[in-house]
Amino acid sequence: MKIAVLREIRQGETRVAATPETVKKLVNMGCSVSVETNAGKLSNFSDELYAQSGADITSTVSDTLKDAKVILKVACPVCSSDIDEVDLFAEEVILIANLQAYSNPKVISKLAEKRISAFAMELMPRITRAQSMDILSSQSNLSGYKAIVEASSVFNGAMPMMMTAAGTIAPARVLVFGAGVAGLQAIATAKRLGAVVLATDVRYAAKEQVESLGGKFIVVDEEAMKAAETDGGYAREMSEDFKNKQAEAVRKEVIKSDIIVTTALIPGKDAPTLVTKELVERMKTGSVIVDLAVEAGGNVEGSVKDKVITTENGVIIIGHSNMPALLSRDASSLFGRNILNFIDLIIDKDTQSLKINWEDEIIKGTLVTRNNAITNTNLKK
After folding, report:
1. Which among 212, 234, 282, 348 is annotated as catalytic?
2. Domain 155-321 belongs to what architecture?
3. Which of 26, 374, 376, 377 could be 31's S-S partner, Cβ–Cβ 3.0 to 4.6 Å?
C-alpha cells in the first residue's frame, strides 16, 4: 500500500505530516511511502533523511500521488482560483489531515464529491484509546509553551524576581484564560521563567491542575463553583451574582497583568470574547496579550489574525494563528507520531493492506466524508 506525503502549500504552514522517524516505521509496517521533494525542508528534515528512512522522493505532486491509497497532510487542502489540491487527488483515496472541517465547508463538500474518505484529525474523540492520536493535545502543548516565549520576547521587563545591589525587581504577572492543554503548558512555562501566574477557567476541576503547576486559580466563591460542577467535570450555569463577581475579580487581574494568554475555543463556533477593548485600554503600557484563539475570531477584542499590533495605550497584542508552525521541527515530530498511530489503527498487519472498522468510535468520530457524502452530522447543519 502506497502512502503519499505532500509538501504543505498553505501560507504560514511549515510543518510536515510525516518525519523520517515515522516514515521508517511505516515502511517497516509494509507500506511504500512517497515524499514530495522539500516536504520537510521547513522542519529541518532533508530529502536525504527521508530517503535513508526508506521513502521514495518525488519531484512533482502528481508523481507523489500516483497510485497512492492514503494521502497525509498537515493542513486542509488549498482550494482557490490559483490552485486546487483536491483536483489533484484521485477518487476514493483516503485523506488524513487537520482539516479544520468546521471552517472549510467548501473543501469538505468537494472531498465528498470525489468520494474521498477524509479523516479530520482535530475531531479525534477524547477517549483514552485515542490519546496517542490526538493532534489537538500535542500541538496545543507547543502552542501554550510558545505563547509565553513569544510574549516574554517582546515584554520589556524581566520574568523572574531579581534581587540586586541596586534593588529588587518584582516578577512579571501572567494571567492565563483557560486551563486546557495549551493553558496548562502556558502556566508551567511562565512559572519556570519565574513569573507570578494566575489562571481562570469555568471548570472547578481545573483548580487542582493550576495549583499543581504553581499557579493561583481565580475564584470568588469556591463552594458555589464546586457545587455547580457536574460529574463529568463540566460547569453548570452559574447565578448572575456569581458571574458578575467572578468577572469583576478577573477584570482586576487583567488590569494588573504584564502578560495575558487566552486559549478559549468552542468547536464549531466563534471564540468567546474574554478581554474587551475597554479592558485593553485599562492595561499597563508595555503589557502583552497572546490570543491563541485568533483563528476562530479571537478572545481579545482588537486582536488581528497573523499580526502583532500595538494599541494606542501601548499594549502589544500577538495574533499568531498557527503557533505550532513556529516550532515546526518538534510540532512535525509530534504530529507525525499522531498520524502514525492512527494509520496503525486502519492497517491489517498480516496483509499489510487497509482494514478499516467503520463502526470504531475513533473512525466514526474523525470521518467527515465517504462515498459521496458528508458523514459528520454536525457538518451537515
Report:
1. 234
2. 3-Layer(aba) Sandwich (3.40)
3. 26
> Which is catalytic among the residues 134, 201, 258, 291?
134
Along the 381 residues of the chain, how does pLDDT read in single tens digits?
999 999 999 999 999 999 999 999 999 999 999 999 999 999 999 999 999 999 999 999 999 999 999 999 999 999 988 899 999 999 999 999 999 999 999 999 999 999 999 999 999 999 999 999 999 999 999 999 999 999 999 999 999 999 999 999 999 999 999 999 999 999 999 999 999 999 999 888 899 999 999 999 998 878 777 776 665 555 556 678 877 888 899 999 999 999 999 999 988 889 999 999 999 999 999 999 999 999 999 999 999 999 999 999 999 999 999 999 999 999 999 999 999 999 999 999 889 899 999 999 999 999 999 999 999 988 876
Alpha helices in 197-239 (DSSP H): 206-212, 222-227
Radius of gyration of the chain (CA): 23
Annotated catalytic residue, options 52, 62, 131, 239: 131
Q: 234 an active-site residue? A: yes
- Rounded to the nearest 10 degrees, what angle do helices 181-192 and 135-154 cross at? 40
Does 155-321 match 2-134+328-374 at the fold level? Answer: yes
Residue 352 catalytic? no
Q: Which among 103, 126, 348, 352 is annotated as catalytic?
A: 126
Q: Which residue carries 467548501 as its cell?
A: 106
Our CA angle for 188, 190, 193, nearest 5°, is 110
* Residues 3-16 as b or e (16 or more Cβ within 10 Å = b): bbbbbbeeeebbbb
Active site residue 139: no
Topology of domain 2-134+328-374, CATH? Rossmann fold (3.40.50)
Catalytic site includes residue 337: no
Q: Is 134 a catalytic residue?
A: yes
Listed by start position, the domains of the chain span 2-134+328-374, 155-321
